[in-house]
Amino acid sequence: MSMDYHKPQDLPSVRGYVRDQAQSAGLDESAVEGMAIAVSELVTNTLQHTTGGGQVRVWAENGSVFCEVADGGTPPAFPRAMPAADAERGRGLAIVEMLCDEVTAIAEPGRTVVRMRFATKPRV
Which residues form the signal peptide (predicted)? Predict the structure, then answer.
């Protein structure tokens, strides 16, 4: 299952979708919020720097929960250094990288996919 987004007003719905899917997939509350923040940063970048919106998808596989944000932009480079404290912009992708256990950018024909992985914690 996935969710499309096209305008800034879609951001709260995207966050809600990600939270619901991540909880259902077994992430603990801290990781759920981390995923929601990371997706919010990526979707905001899409809306600011590309046209046509994008798509978010969440699924569980092999002890991890994955989330993909796809759009028509160019692939960002990872790893990212945190910009200097006096920099006006550029923290979003560095924050995404800090929140995830793994993040990769994949160039596909006509789109870019940023895939994030969050490890699930064993239930005690």
Answer: none
Q: What is the model's pTM?
A: 0.89
The verdict on residue 124 lying in a domain is no
What confidence tens digit (pLDDT) does each residue in 87-108 have? 778 788 888 999 999 999 999 9
How big, in percent rounded to 5, are the helix, strand and coil portions of the chain? 35, 30, 35
Residue 82 forms part of a structural domain? yes
Residue 46 lies in domain: 2-119
CATH number of the domain at 26, please: 3.30.565.10
| 96 to 7, 12, 100: CA distances (angstroms) | 21, 18, 6
Q: Report CA 21 to chain centroid distance, whole Å.
A: 13
